[in-house]
Design brief:
Oligomer: single chain
Number of helices: 4
Order of helices and strands: EEHEEEEHHH
Structural class: alpha+beta
Number of strands: 6
Shape: rod-shaped
Length: about 130
Amino acid sequence: INAEYMGKKVLLSGAPVRIHKRQAVVRFMFFNEKDVNWFKPVQLHTRFGQVGHIKEPVGTHGYMKCQFTNTLRSEDAVYMALYKRVYPKWTTIPSSWIPTIEQQFRVPSLEMKHTPEMEEDENSMQPNE
């Protein structure tokens, strides 16, 4: 079965606290030092187009030192894009699969034609009043 790749994008955002040339301390993106170290390899970008990466955590509350390609501005925001693979729900079946599924799960009793003999049998099964 050939399925399309479907992905979900999530943006984590943070704000620069201290800016010194190309380095900045960013907060509000993570809550602890462990998360900062986990996401170190992921690239950062800003609202005004700078690209950077995480250098090291600062303290234990999720602050981090980041290095960027150029000087940041104080009104800038720092973003990290995370992607997750998403599988289609089973309720959404491609139309090309429907004939195959119908053939595989065909119920013979539903395909029988209704005849007068069957109608008499049904009437005889009902209780008389």
